[in-house]
Every structure is written in C-alpha cells, then in structure tokens.
C-alpha cells in the first residue's frame, strides 16, 4: 500500500485543536454487532469525521487558521501557539461532506460533494463507542473475525473505498497532550503506517514547522512531523481491484516522527522509518488470479457482498501470537474462499502468513521491511487495541496505481508483482477522476465483530 492521504480536504478546509461552537457536532449513528456462537448483540456506535477535514478558525472569530494549503502566520507562528489560538468546529456531515446513513447500521460516503465552500473531496471517519462520543470504539482482533457488507458498484478505477484499523489512542490524544482540547469527539489523533505528514495537528500541536503546500493539491501540504502507528488494512478496493494488508511498526500506539528517517519520508528512507509502509498485501489480481474479483467475476462487484476477515492465533486465545489472516466472501448466500496464489515461488495459499510474506517479497523482488519491523507477530501485538477507520479517497501521489493498475509504471506489466488490476494508469489522476466521477460513492453496512465463525452464515 502506498497511500498518502494528501488530498482529502474540501475547498475551504482549515484545521485545529480547540473546540468551536459555531456548528453543532452530531455524530451520525452507525450501529455494529458483537457476536458469539450464541448470537449477536447490537452496539449503539456512531462515526466521527477526522479533524483534518474540519473548519478551523481563530477562537475569537471567523478568521481561518489554515487557508488553501497555507497556515495563517499571525495565528500560527509556531505549533503550540497555533493550537491555543485555533478552534476546531463541528461538522454538517451530509451537506458539507456527503456522509449519510441510508439505513440502520449503514454508512454512505460520497466522493465529491458540492457545498457552500466549494466542494468536498473524499472523507475519513472513525467509529466511536456507545455513549457521548468522547472515545473511539477499541477492537481486539486476535482470535476474532471482522465482517461487513460493501457496495462498490459505484466506485470506479482510481478510487479507494478503505476499511481499516489504526492503533490510535482511545480518546484521540485528549488526555495525553494538553494542547488537544478536542479529542475523539472531534476526530483527532489519526495515525497510520505511512506516518502521514499532511496531518495538521499532531500531539496537540500544529504541524507548522517547514510546512510546504502541495504542488498538485490546493488544500494539502506536509510539515516536519508525521503521525505513525500500526495499521491493518481490511479492505482497500474499488470495482476492479482489492487488497488486504497488515502493516506492523517498531513503535506501539500513535507516535510522532520528527525527521525524514523516522518518518520514512522519500525513497531513500522508505524502509528505515518507524513503520512498514508497504505491508504484506494479498491482492488476487497481483497474486495471479485475474478473474476472481471485478464486475461479473467470481466476486461480482456490480452487486453488494460480505467480507469476512479472520485473525488466527497460535494458541487459539485472544492474546496469542498472530500466525495467519484468512479472507473469504459471501455473495448471494454462497461462501466464496479467497483466491489462491498462482505466482511462481509462492505456495498456492489463500491467506497471509509469515511464510507467504517471505515468499511473496522474494518473488516480487520487494524489500521485506515487513519482517524487519516484526512481521505478523508484531502486527498481532498491535491488534489488541485498534480503532476502526472508514474512508473514500483519491491519490495525488501515484494515482492509485499501486492498487488497481501497473506499479511501478516504469516496469513492464509482465514483471512479477507489477500488474495489480486492469485499470488504465491515467484513470486515477485526481483531476481526471474528480471530474469524470464526482458522483462516485461507497456503502459500508452490517459491521460485526465476534468469535471465529460467528458473524456470518450461508443460505
């Protein structure tokens, strides 16, 4: 995975850490179910919009603290002062961001939403625990399975409807960092294995140091700091391609990186940072089965289906060492096992294990940084306290080629591991996809967490 999240901001986006009062914050309800062998119980959970999307203004009025892709130098001369001066406000989820709940337990994310400030592009939300929304819902995935339904029939090439887990702090950093007055209730504390440096506020301070606006995105940029943590990509997909990918880290929980080496910034540092940005992916197309996933394929993406992911431990306990990640699908009442690898040098398996990852990295001539930072065992330690993330986005870095096309684009498509989907490499260029498919969307629903084989059934 090469996700950068460099462009998920609306036209007049601004950011911050104090709490504003100009727009009431109301989290859209999205109930999930917790299951055992005896049945499932409903949890009254909700979703909260990431702080990076929100309007932020000076606490004394309406002046933006961040405008376009530049900081307000008066309000934000340094990180701590900026956090004190700037208030993060509530969100109108539907009108501004195109985030709706079409039915109980369902969430629809619109790709482009026109609003009074221009247009919002993409979104990222987190699941909050039942109650007042001040804490994220934490998941222990070990010895469990995670299941949900998805409709990607309106999600074309170049887009990514992503469902994943990040090792974020339960309260969004509210208690750990005095400069953070907003917390999980306002979507603070994001981190992932890319150690993203486009996050405007990290550890309660504005990321203003050496901030540089993006040359391709009028609303984004990058600062000196990044926000790192382990990440488990359950689902990164569109109509044509999908992958699931564990990304372990050297660090536990959300950690701020403060230099290029620790952040893994740039090609020279990619495999020296706190986290593994590549991960160990299972993409059926990349693993040699080009007819498994897509419109009219074995898993037919023109229709909704269910995704089941199981996390197998060595001793069958909720604290054991992670040894395998299984994947299968349910569509039309039929259980569909994940495709098997058909790559020379890789055993014909349909799951992720350390053996699979080692063989795949060798077969594709990829750096096995996955193993260096802990492999599945390291990933498993992080899976005990994870926050659920749901998003839709486009990619200003490499046009989503790493997911659904040929990557690197400079290598022959016939080289092992290069072809990842059928999409044209140019289809995912942000200007192209935003213009051609503003009405694209993804729907997630029927989320369940439970003991193995408790969250689904075939007809």
What is the rounded distance between the termini?
35 Å
Structural class: mainly beta
Quantity of strands, as a count? 31
- CATH superfamily label: Glycoside hydrolase, family 7, domain
Report low-confidence residues grouped into runs of 5 or more: 1-15
Strand content: 25-35%
Kindly provide the radius of gyration, computed on alpha-carbon positions and rounded to a whole number of angstroms.
Answer: 21 Å
How many domain regions?
A: 1
Name of the level-1 CATH class: Mainly Beta
Question: What CATH architecture do you see?
Answer: Distorted Sandwich
The CATH topology name reads 1,4-Beta-D-Glucan Cellobiohydrolase I, Chain A
Largest sheet: 9 strands, mixed
The percent of residues in helical segments reads 10-25%
Overall shape = globular
In round numbers, the mean pLDDT is 94
- State the helix count: 8
Pfam families: Glyco_hydro_7
Catalytic activity: Hydrolysis of (1->4)-beta-D-glucosidic linkages in cellulose and cellotetraose, releasing cellobiose from the non-reducing ends of the chains
Keywords: Carbohydrate metabolism, Cellulose degradation, Glycosidase, Hydrolase, Polysaccharide degradation, Signal
EC number: 3.2.1.-
